Amino acid sequence: MQERKHPSSSRTRLKLEVFDCPRRFLVWSESRPDECHLVDLDENEGRGECSCEDWNFNQGDYYLWQKPYECKHIKTCRLYESQEDI
Ligand SMILES: [Zn+2]
């Protein structure tokens, strides 16, 4: 039996939990299930911040590309927020 998926949920879908305030989240790692990252969407003037290596490695490119880098954890949180607003 196959699970039917909503089209919007077929993108990045990681396990997440609201942390100590509504725009701070804990997002669990896909590759390492016992590991989670702290995402703060209000950091960096709203560009967001994540504690993962991926984000820390790539976020410097903001100054090159003039757009914020969003790792899969930040994307997951933004997706979660956009669904909450509906
Ligand atoms: Zn991340």
Largest sheet: 4 strands, antiparallel
In this entry the ligands are: zinc ion
Shape by Cα distribution:
globular
Average of per-residue pLDDT values: 84
Question: What is the β-strand count?
Answer: 4
Uncertain segments of ≥5 residues (pLDDT<50)? 6-10
Spatial sequence of strands, sheet with the most strands? 1-2-3-4
Measured distance between first and last alpha carbons: 30 Å
By secondary-structure content and strand pairing, the structural class works out as alpha+beta
Number of helices: 4
Description:
With 86 residues, this protein is an alpha+beta fold. The chain has one domain. Helix content is 31%, strand content 17%. The protein is built from four helices and four strands; from the N terminus they run βββαβααα. A four-stranded antiparallel sheet has the order 1-2-3-4, covered by helices on one side. It is globular. The termini are far apart. About 6% of the residues have low confidence. Zinc ion binds next to helix 2.
For this entry, give a set of tags.
binds zinc ion; alpha+beta; 86 residues; 4 helices
Helices and strands in order:
Blueprint: E1 16-18, E2 24-28, E3 36-40, H1 43-46, E4 49-50, H2 53-58, H3 62-65, H4 72-84
Antiparallel strand pairs: 1-2, 2-3, 3-4
Q: Short summary of the structure?
A:
The chain has helices at residues 43-46, 53-58, 62-65, 72-84, and strands spanning 16-18, 24-28, 36-40, 49-50. It has 86 residues and is of the alpha+beta class. β2 and β3 (36-40) form a beta hairpin.
